[in-house]
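Internal ticket - ligand job 649, FE(4)-NI(1)-S(4) cluster:
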Amino acid sequence: MSGSKKNFNDLSDDKAVVEIMERMAAKEIPEISTAFDRAQSMKPCPIGSAVSGICCKNCAMGPCRVREGRTGLCGATISTIAARNLARHIAGGASAHSDHGRDLAHLLGLVAEDKAPGFEIKDELKLLKFARNLGIKIDDRDTKDIAKDTAKKAMSLFGQQHGEVDLIKMAPKKRQEVWRKYNVVPRGIDREIVETMHRTHIGVDQDAEHILDHAIRTAISDGWGGSMVATEITDILFNTPRAVPARTNLGMLSKDEVNLVIHGHEPTLSELIVELAEDKEILGYAKSKGAKGINVVGICCTAIEVLMRQGVAPIGNFLSQEIAIMTGAVELMVVDVQCIMQALGETTKKFHTKLITTSPKCKIGGATHMEFKENNGLELAREIIKMAIDNFENRKEQICIPGFTEDLVAGFSHEYIKYALGGKFRESFRPLNDAIIDGRIQGVVAIVGCNNARVPHDKYHNFLTRELIKRDYLVVLTGCAAISTAKCGLMKPEAMKYAGEGLRSICETVGIPPILHMGSCVDNSRILTVLSDVVKEGGLGEDISDLPVAGIAPEWMSEKALSIGTYVVASGVYTVFSGVPIPVESSQEVKDIITSGWEEKYGGKLEYVSDVNEVLNKVIDHIQSKRKALKIDVKKERVLFDMEARRGM
Ligand code: XCC
Ligand code: SF4
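stdout (structure tokens):
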């Protein structure tokens, strides 16, 4: 047992996950094949995963497995195939985020027409701001009318055929000029995704750099388009997040309450479920069935959406989804879209857990499909909660809830960061810029993205976060990376003791943790907004590419991560992927294009670095070189102003 115990610790940094694996090995839990096991028994396809070659299956003369010095049957080179593959992945990721954004725009329109019972406009201020950014007339018009026009305009961004997607105007002026210069401003979100599919069809675009410029355009249509729409409208309908305390990890499952897990990415139905779970009548029903209450918790980004606004506990990230079922304590898991393992269908069959799919876009074998429509949300939420309650008495397995929990503080929308820094009447990024200029904060690093079963669970996220805050780099996180660091106890104010002296002094003054949870994966758009505002605040250059910042996706696996990484690079930020290679490793030409080539054009580069220590060094070197260029690399003495000096200012 002690030998295998060490083994499980190698697989995950999450003690709760390790405990479940140990208890399964000790036969206390039915034997289940998890992603952790499958990663060991199943090797990835060697063509394409290694530098030895690449695979194209874009037409039926293939699949062509191409090695150095050869081409595909049609003559396609390794570089063309690598560029096409990367572009298609980016289109896949951009479509996922953007389709999510579209659904929210659609919902906003219905809410404005009173056709979506249970939903309302909760943040009018944000609506006005978003409407203004879209060029909607405000005057003294009725909120609902403004919402109607805003929804219509947001919806039109997807199918727009000509001109520029309006939201790019939120980027610094200089950045917009860069995009115009290289002709990569997106016209419409859907249009760019479709064009990626067309260009990468056999016999169309066969110039790697040209393909990849369009990939950039497609990614921008995600970050400054679809994802931005998703984030803004989610805030409008469910409130803009502000600091909220919560707890995380599997220990938040309850032994004597009905456990209902929400999982996926969309906030819509889940928000209703969370609200309704507090309804007296429903609670009474739960009690009549022998449960002490109803415990709604979450996994992946749906969890994050309701964490950011309602303090709901995220019990795990991507690799915890099967593990959660194995506690035997989950009555029902309700899923919407993205990152939901098909294996859940089989796993839930071995327990009493009910698996419910709700999106018209997603059905899974073994799940019951109960479709969400914007006008049936309330009834559906009630039905699902009731189903979970009815299932409580069917608990049969030994309940095995690992006793691990951690405190965290989430909710760092860009609005809240501004407020936290400056206070209600003087909200501004000035204190952050000043702290970066005087070196108390060396720079800002965004750690984002997934878990990957080929990489030790959570380990890279946690390692990099710890090492960076120790050296006075402020870390902002989203998605599964954020859940990872929360589980290991870094996302609470007390964790400031792990931060360097400079960063700690800021955390103490402002009262924030050394790492900031900025939301779900579509909320990476919030990071873009912060970067733009920091540039506008002044003192750190004129464009995002001047800032001492970097991005890391240490355990990436989804196509969305590639789209995010690319739009961040297009915005001027150095971005490193680690864990597993990005799908271009076999082509030196493509690697050159997305590193030195993109850096020359866009000021940011996309790079895969396998060694996590090297990731750390590269990111630090990059940020220090930006500090040098800004001439803020010399540590200045802190000037203490007395009252006399202040009056003279
Ligand atoms: Fe999915 Fe968003 Fe990745 Fe986690 S981080 S595995 S995409 S849930 Ni976006
Ligand atoms: Fe092979 Fe060319 Fe067809 Fe790709 S497009 S599968 S390289 S023949």
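Auto-summary: DSSP finds 26 helices and 16 strands in the chain. The mean pLDDT is 95.
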